[in-house]
Amino acid sequence: MTVAIATLHEQVSAWLKASRQRIYRELQAPLTVATKSGRTDLVTNVDRANQRFLISQIHAAYPQAHIEGEEGRQAKLDRLAGLVFFVDPIDGTMNFVKQRANFAVMIGVYIDGAPLYGAILDVARDELITGGPNWPLQLNDRPLPTPADLALADGLIGVNGHMLIRNGVHVADVALKSAGPRLIGSAGMEFIAVALGQQVGYVSYLQPWDVAPGLAIGANFGLQVTRPDASAIDLLEPGIVVAAMPKAHAEIIDLMQG
Ligand code: IPD
Ligand code: CA
Ligand code: CA
Ligand code: CA
Does the keyword Ion transport apply (predicted)? Predict the structure, then answer.
């Protein structure tokens, strides 16, 4: 199967920009906030509406595509064959509800399990980061430099707050060895920070739609994205993700084995 990446980029960019307009229009009315698995696991009417919008756009443009999105009722994927779109209609829902900033809309596109293209929109700043193994790293269609391959001691590290507090998989040790930990609260915004060279990596427990867009973008610039034992990410399962530039990634993996 071949997909024209330039066309895909134009389409996905337009869908994410349209999502932004829709989100701000919907915010003119009060938000409806519900909990899912617990009090910190939120979903709003805007998450649901935006997933419906994105899925309808993808279906219309790519009727053959399989779609895995966070919200909604579509069946969970059981294989990665063919063209697959991973959709997070709002990443960082807690930030969206509490801050109206530091949240993203994001899409990752894969063919037979291999990354093709990723796009993450920082909604509040209106900054769209895109990239893929055969698509340049760009911010709003302008090229970005490749992030520096810093040692862990020279870079900031994005971390999941719960994992840091509990020192799960030695995340506190990783944070102590780094130039400092940062907790943004949105996987998409963390991957943007890495792509912009603002932090050297990110460690969290993520669902497939949280990691797929950033993994595809990172394939452009040598970002290492693995499990803590350095094994490859299986995009059918949630799990701990270590995403970092090569030098820092090797150091983090060493610390996690310790
Ligand atoms: C969450 C955010 C958060 C990460 C969670 C994700 P959501 O996404 O990315 O930073 O720590 O694991 O579930 O639920 O707001 O789309
Ligand atoms: Ca969620
Ligand atoms: Ca998410
Ligand atoms: Ca979400």
Answer: no
Residue 143 makes CB contacts below 8 A (sequence gap 6+) with: 136, 137
Ligand 1 atom closest to residue 96's alpha carbon, by position in its atom list: 15
Domains within the chain, CATH numbers bracketed = 5-143 (3.30.540.10), 152-257 (3.40.190.80)
The pLDDT of residue 141: 98
Torsion of CA 157, 163, 166, 167, to 10 degrees: -50
Pocket perturbation via mutation, ligand 1, pick of 91, 103, 120 by most ligand atoms within 8 A of CB: 91
Rounded to whole angstroms, what are the CA distances from 107 to 143, 197, 255? 19, 21, 31
Global ipTM: 0.97
Answer whether 172's CB lies under 8 Å from 161's CB.
no
pLDDT given at position 106 = 98
Residues of the chain with pLDDT under 70: none
Q: Are 211 and 235 in contact (CB under 8 A)?
A: yes
Give helix 208-218 / helix 187-195 axis angle, nearest 10°: 10
Strands (E), the chain: 33-35, 42-44, 66-69, 83-91, 104-111, 114-122, 127-132, 135-139, 142-143, 156-159, 180-182, 201-206, 224-226, 239-244
Residues 169-181: pLDDT tens digits? 999 999 999 999 9
Question: What is the torsional sign of CA 36, 166, 209, 181?
Answer: positive
* Atom nearest to 204 CA in ligand 1: 11
| pTM over the 0.90 mark | yes
Looking at the CA of 185, which ligand is closest? 1
Residue 135 in tokens? 């698509």
